[in-house]
Design a protein that fits this description.
The protein is 70% helix and 3% strand. The chain has a two-stranded antiparallel ribbon with strand order 1-2. Helix 4 runs parallel beside helix 11, helix 7 packs antiparallel against helix 8 and helix 9 runs antiparallel to helix 10.
């Protein structure tokens, strides 16, 4: 029995409703700011200091040029995915007690923070101070690590982490994401072709990212053994697929990346949510 189940359905569902509200707000902000930000994208694309990192760029970067408006499309796709996932999680898990699903919902909610990516092109149009741009990117950084750490927390809960309450684990996830977001040096005058600001310690953080992803996948596989449920095996695959798809989507700068990235993100999230629902449906 998981002590993390001490949170009642009512309390947990309140988090779900907050997630729907925040995701709706992010969609509204992107919709409201898009027209004003549009003229800033070509200018920022022209002044990008490097191509967005990733497998697609490494393989095809020399053949496929970046598209100026691709960051806008991926931002819109991210916030819409966050809202859709928040609604579906609430609908399917409103009456189903599953300790992991709260942190899975935080992972999908993290996509709503991508709305802050609209600030740099707005800053280019309206000549905002660099402080606003760097602050916006710290919001983006927080969201990305909040999502990564949340899915990691879901995996360790599944593997057998026992806690009397989930609140301390939530605070740990938030604090860890804040430390990285506030402590990472950010150059507001330099960005890549996906309009990500150039941050310090990039190589180190990428190693940490993939280390956490590996542990997350392994933890779900351990859960399949310790809890005697093979449903955790596709959940492990779904976690890997969702995280890889998210990375591909958020770093896209060409037509080649967004659709495969979004498809992998959606498919991975579906594996996680559908299998968790199957595990806990009759408990």
């Amino acid at each position: 029995m998981f002590y993390a189940e001490a949170m009642t359905l009512t309390q947990r569902n309140r988090f779900f409703k907050i997630g729907i509200a925040l995701s709706s707000l992010s969609v509204a902000l992107v919709a409201a700011g898009t027209l004003s930000a549009l003229p800033g994208y070509p200018d920022m694309a022209a002044r990008a200091v490097r191509r967005a990192p990733g497998l697609v760029t490494a393989l095809f970067g020399a053949l496929i040029p970046p598209l100026a408006y691709m960051p806008l499309l991926t931002t819109a796709a991210s916030v819409l995915a966050a809202l859709t996932a928040a609604i579906l999680i609430y609908y399917f898990f409103e009456q189903t007690q599953a300790p992991e699903i709260l942190f899975v919902s935080f992972f999908t909610l993290s996509l709503a923070f991508e709305a802050a990516r609209l600030v740099p092109p707005l800053g280019s149009v309206h000549e905002l101070p660099g402080l606003f741009i760097s602050a916006a990117y710290r919001v983006v950084l927080f969201g990305r690590y909040f999502g990564l750490f949340s899915l990691f927390a879901a995996s360790v809960l599944a593997a057998g982490l026992q806690m009397q309450k989930q609140a301390p684990l939530i605070l740990i996830v938030v604090a860890a994401a804040l430390v990285i977001a506030l402590g990472t040096p950010v150059d507001s005058l330099a960005w890549d072709s996906s309009l990500d600001m150039i941050g310090g310690y990039w190589d180190l953080f990428r190693m940490v990212d993939w280390g956490i992803i590996l542990i997350t996948v392994v933890s779900f596989l351990v859960a399949a053994h310790t809890r005697g449920s093979r449903d955790y095996i596709p959940i492990a695959g779904g976690a890997l697929l969702a995280l890889a798809g998210r990375d591909l989507l958020l770093r896209a700068d060409t037509w080649l990346s967004p659709l495969p990235g979004l498809a992998a993100l959606i498919l991975g999230a579906w594996f996680i949510m559908s299998r968790l629902h199957s595990i806990y449906l009759w408990l």
